From TrEMBL:
It comes from the Eukaryota. InterPro entries: Calcineurin-like_PHP (IPR004843), Metallo-depent_PP-like (IPR029052). Residues 3-109 form the Calcineurin-like phosphoesterase domain. It comes from Aegilops tauschii subsp. strangulata. This is Calcineurin-like phosphoesterase domain-containing protein. Gene3D superfamilies: 3.60.21.10. It holds the Pfam family Metallophos.
Length: 282
């Protein structure tokens, strides 16, 4: 399970999305699966907020649009193969990390912005691809989400939240109500993709605050019948760790070079005679 924020973390974003989808196809053939969960930066890009986009990713959008012209509506094949084509293209053209994005290169910037907007706008091909992924995922009695799941999210309805975000991403009709951002998932400090209640660094919080977050986590998990929760959103400078009396695992280690460029870590679980063991692989 990947818990979001693939976007706005450097170049090769579409290639990473393509790779994860390709891995999912391979995993399913062996009885497994690869899941992706949308984070706040996925929703921001569909909204048209490109403030954190790496210049190299604008380049990738331009090239990806050109590449799509070679296919006649075969989106799945084109998308799954992009991870291979992208690497060959970079090697062939020797693309520099930031492309040729000089401050006064307005033509290049406009072309890159237009390419990204067409791909990620509501109803655009990459927005529809992201719409396939949930905001909240339940796997084997464990909840996965980007920011965190809170009691009022459960009361509102997890399936309802996922459906609203998916419909919003796919919608291209400006007259439809689905053009409005789903507030419960994407807006406010306590929305599903923005809350840091569980993942905030311990040095920034009081003991009372930690006790409260543990109570809220326990209440939330009990209401959905889950054993624990896994979240991202906030880079953990000390690596993958558990909080809230072991109920919440925080797995964003900021490994992208656009964040902390830290070493990769993976949270794993094993089921043994009805019990669960959680840990991390460095």
């Amino acid at each position: 399970v990947q818990v979001g924020d693939i976007l706005d973390r450097g170049e090769d974003e579409i290639a990473i999305l393509s790779l994860l989808s390709s891995l999912n196809v391979q995993a399913k053939s062996q009885g497994g699966a690869v899941f992706q969960v949308n984070g706040n930066h996925e929703t921001m890009n569909v909204e048209g907020d490109f403030r954190y986009v790496d210049p190299g990713s604008f380049d990738e959008c331009i090239r990806f649009l050109e590449y799509l012209e070679e296919f006649d509506g075969e989106w799945d094949d084109a998308f799954l193969n992009w991870v291979n084509v992208s690497q060959r293209w970079k090697e062939e053209y020797r693309v520099s990390p930031n492309g040729d994005w000089l401050p006064l290169n307005f033509v290049k910037k406009n072309k890159g912005f237009a390419a990204r907007a067409s791909l990620f706008k509501q109803g655009g091909p990459l927005a529809c691809e992201l719409a396939r992924h949930p905001v909240v995922l339940n796997v084997n009695d464990w909840m996965f989400c980007h920011g965190g799941l809170l009691p009022h999210h459960v009361e509102y309805g997890i399936e309802r939240i996922n459906k609203e975000v998916s419909n919003w991403m796919q919608c291209s009709n400006e007259d439809s109500d689905d053009t409005n951002l789903p507030f419960m998932a994407t807006r406010g400090y306590d929305s599903v993709v923005w809350t840091r209640l569980y993942s905030q660094d311990s040095v920034e919080r009081t003991r009372r605050s930690w006790d409260l977050s543990s109570i809220i986590a326990e209440q939330t998990l009990k209401s959905v019948g889950a054993k624990g929760m896994v979240v991202g959103h906030t880079p953990q400078t000390r690596g993958v760790n558990c909080k809230c009396d072991g109920k919440v695992w925080c797995i964003d280690v900021g490994m992208s070079y656009g964040v902390l460029h830290s070493r990769p870590e993976v949270c794993y679980c094993r089921y043994i005679t009805g019990s669960i063991l959680l840990g991390k692989i460095l």
